């Protein structure tokens, strides 16, 4: 398939014709060949020669890969095991079981313990927004504060950029990217921290970030305070039409007048997306029928990349996978995870290449490997059970994560990205 003229001209401008990408081939043909290399191998191939380094670091490469979307894009997962200011996130390629470290976020000496932030991908970038943290300049010191910070990792320059802060600081909030408008929407949140489950504030404000202008704009707020919620955009005709906010908690109550407990919502909220701003919020009723026990597991959405069918929304609760039916506004059991998680461990749930990846850490010994480092023993083995919703089939993958300690999926932040 020929390269579009605009991409070819960009490539010829960046690379001198005397420095061929592949000797004996025109640069546009060689660029097409190199664009099909898995993204996880690029960092090892860049030092091959100067033309390869220029091409593999250029916008032309990403444009070519997106032009041949179905065949060349790598479905990757960015994993933030803990505070990204002090611990490097890693990029994981499940197809080739390859891990690649990314640089940590720019550090602020006054802030530490960042958690409950949200990470979302848009184009060749990953955004890290908000979160809850401790600030040595605040009082009292033992209580978390919400953050309004925003960072963006640029895969072209392999560096982090500090963006305009959000209008309202927040952590544990709903977030969704709007690729058709090059925007990001955030809703709700508060100052909840992993050490203080029911403490902290809740907010109802909603904002939209414009990538081109690097500006945040306030939209109509949620009808009620809501934190710990999940957000996603529903597409129709190739464009995002609605922004959904599901799950989360509002007020808190106490058990026996001592132990604080969150009051979880059983409904969902929908905002119609418009070109000049967001619309009004539409409230959906209770998603659980009479006599059903509400479940509050991890929620993800699986989109049909061809646009031929509506998105599917799934929830992982304990060992059961539930599917949400938009027509009836009800959750129905889809299937169960084949292998249950070990005792006192947690599941991680993400969507990659239209498949559900249910992840957990196991500590079984691999008999084929006689020499294992202490780091691998401490980190355990990442076991992924992968479910295909349309085929209704399961498969599994096993890999050794490069972390110093086992992943805690109750606090680990994960962000799918296509490059």
How would you concisely characterize the structure shown here?
The chain is mostly beta strands and 419 residues long. Strand 23 and strand 24 form a beta hairpin.
Overview of the structural elements:
This is F-box domain-containing protein. With 419 residues, the protein is mainly β. It folds into 2 domains: 65 residues, no CATH class; 266 residues, Kelch-type beta propeller (Neuraminidase), CATH 2.120.10. 11% of the residues lie in helices and 39% in strands. It has 7 helices and 29 strands. The strands form 8 sheets. It has a 4-stranded antiparallel β-sheet with strand order 3-2-1-29, with no helix packed on it.
In the CATH hierarchy, the third-tier topology of the largest domain is known as: Neuraminidase
Strand order of the largest sheet: 3-2-1-29
CATH homologous superfamily caption of the largest domain: Kelch-type beta propeller
Number of E strands: 29
Structural class: mainly beta
Largest sheet: 4 strands, antiparallel
Number of domains: 2
Please report the first level of CATH classification, the CATH class of the largest domain: Mainly Beta
Q: Could you tell me the mean pLDDT?
A: 84
Q: Give the low-confidence spans.
A: 365-377
Shape designation: globular
Strand content: 35-45%
Output the number of helix runs: 7
Q: How far do the termini sit from each other?
A: 19 Å
CATH architecture of the largest domain: 6 Propeller
Using only C-alpha atoms, the radius of gyration works out to: 22 Å
Fraction of residues in H or I helices? 10-25%
